[in-house]
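2 proteins. here.
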Amino acid sequence: MVNQSPVETALSRAMIRWSLTKSTPVAETPTSWIFRVEQNGRNFAALKILKPLAAEEERRGAGLMQWYAGEGAATIFDTHGDTIFMEWLNGIPLGDAVRKDRDEEAAIAIATVVGQLHRPRPEAPEDLMPLRERFEALFETDVKAWPHTARDLYARANGIAIKLFDKPSAQIPLHGDLHHDNIISSDRGWLAIDPKGLLGDPAYEVANVFQNPAGSTKLAADPKRIAMLADMFEARLGFNRKRVLGWAAAHAALSACWLIETDSPITTQLAVLPPLLAAYDLV
C-alpha cells in the first residue's frame, strides 16, 4: 500500500466523518488545500484542509465564520482538527464586477456585507487578534527599508495609525481582510470568505477595499474613486469619514511593510498613499 500524504489522510478522514461521496481538488493556497465535495451526489460543499504554518490564523477565522452563522459570510457546517467543512460558493468574486466597470455597484455590495457581518451577536469568539497586534509590522519596520522618496509617506501613515489607536473606538469582531476578491456571489447573495479574525475599530473593516481589487492600481489611486468609497461607507454604514480614510492610509502602509519583508514590489501602495493622505487631510 502506498503511504498517503498528510493532506490525503486528512481528506480521507473528512470524507468518512461527514459522509461525503466525491472530492475534486480546486486550489492550493499559501494557507490551505481546497476541495469541492459532494453530499449524497446532490449538494456541493467545500473542504478546506489547513497547512500547519497557517493553522492558528485560519482556525481563528473559522471560529469567526461560525459566529457569523451564514449572515454576510459563507456558512461553516463543522470543523475537525485542521479541516473545515463549509458551504460551496459557486459564483464569481466581487472584483470581477469592478473589472467590468461596475465599481460603485461593488462598493454598495461591500457596504451591505459589512452591515451583515457587524450585526450585534452574543458571545463573540475569545481568541480574536487585537487590531494593534496586527499592525506590529508597520510600527517595527525600519523607515530605511522604504524607498528613499517614499519615506515621508511611511512616516505620515505611521503617525495616523498611532493617532487612531490612541483615540478610543468601539471594539468589535472584524473580518480583517475584507476586499473585493474575498467576497463571492452565491444563491444567497454576496458572501465573505477567508477572515483573519480581528478585534478592533469597525471603520478598519473597509480599509483594504481602497487598494483593491488586485490589478486595479490606476482606479485605486483615483481621488474621485477614494471620495466615492468614503462617501459610501459614511452614508451606508455610519462610519466616521476621517477614521475610514485614516485606516485606509495606515493599512496601505502596513501592506507595503508586509511586502517589503518578502522583497515584493509595493507599486500599488506607493500609488494609493498620496491621494489617500490628501483625502484624509481634507476632512
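next one coming up
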Amino acid sequence: MTNHRPTLRSVQAPSAVVMIRPLFFSTSKDAAQSSSRSLIGESQRDIDFAEQAYVEISAAADELSRHGVDVHLFEDKSRDTPKSVFLNNWLSTHAGGYVTIYPMQAESRRKERRDDVIELLKTEYRVQDVVDFSELEEEQQFLEGTGAMVFDNIERVVYAVPSNHADKQALEQFCDHFKYEPVIFEAQHSDGKPVAHTNAVLCIGTGIALIGSDLIIDPAQKAEIIRRLEQSGRLVVQLSNGQIEACVGRSIELHSKTEGLLLAMSEGAYASLHQEQIDLIEQSTKIVQLKLDTIEQAGGSARCTMAGIHLNLREFEPELETEAT
C-alpha cells in the first residue's frame, strides 16, 4: 500500500519549477564547448532532433502541471545555447529567499544564465538575495549547481563528487555561505571513467534515497553515506550500474498541490527498475514518468531539466478602496 497521498510541504521537494524549452537543442560536444557559436548543422536530422527535444520538454511541462506542480516555462531561441535545457547547472533556489548562480566550466554554457528567469523569481516569490558565484570562473573554479551537488535540505548536507564540474574550494565556499555540511566522495562508472556530475549516482527525496553505491570507490565512504541516509529515516534504494546509465539517479522529487510527493523520472529510467524497487519507492512518493529520450542523448534527464523553486510566493495585497470625502 502506497503512502504518497497529499502531505505537508517538504523542504526537500519543491512545488514549483523553472524549465527552458529549447529550439536549437544539440548533443554536439563541440557545441557545448564552443565559446563563440553553436555548431549545430542545418541537416534535416539536426532539425528533427531539435524539434523532438522541444516536444519532449513541452510534454514534460504539461505532465507536471497535470499532476499539480507549478511550471514556469521559458523559451530559448538562441543557437548559442544548445544545452540551455539543463538550467539546473547554473541556477538553484533555497529556503529563506535565496537564489544562487553558479560558475560553469564550458564558456558557451555561461551564456545560458538569464536575467528574465531571475526577474520572474523576484517578481512572484520572496527573494532576499541573489548569491552569484559566477566570478569563480576567472579562477577556473566551477560548481555546476544541482548537477554537481545533491542536497539533503532536511539534514543540511551537500553530497558531491569532485570533478572539473565540482571544485572543492568552490564547494566549501558554497557550504560556508549556506551552512551546509559537505560530504565529498570519489566515484567512477563501470568503464572506469570518473563521475562528472553527482546527480548521476544519487537522488535524495523526503523519505527515500536512490543511490548507485557500486560507483563509490572507497568502501568506507560508501558505508558512511548509506549509514547517513538510513539514519535520516529514508528508505535507501540501491541502483545497479545499468540503472545509473538509464538515468534513474537523475530523478527529482517534487510536491504536488493535489497528489503529495512525486518522483519525476524518465520513461527509460522507470523501465530499468525492478518491481520491488518501484514498490519501495512508492511507499514514499508517486512516480511520474516523462518521455525524455532525446534529452537523455545529451547526458541529462529529469533532474537536469528543472530548477526547483524552494521559495515562498509573494502575497500581493489588494489595493484598498478609499471612501470619497
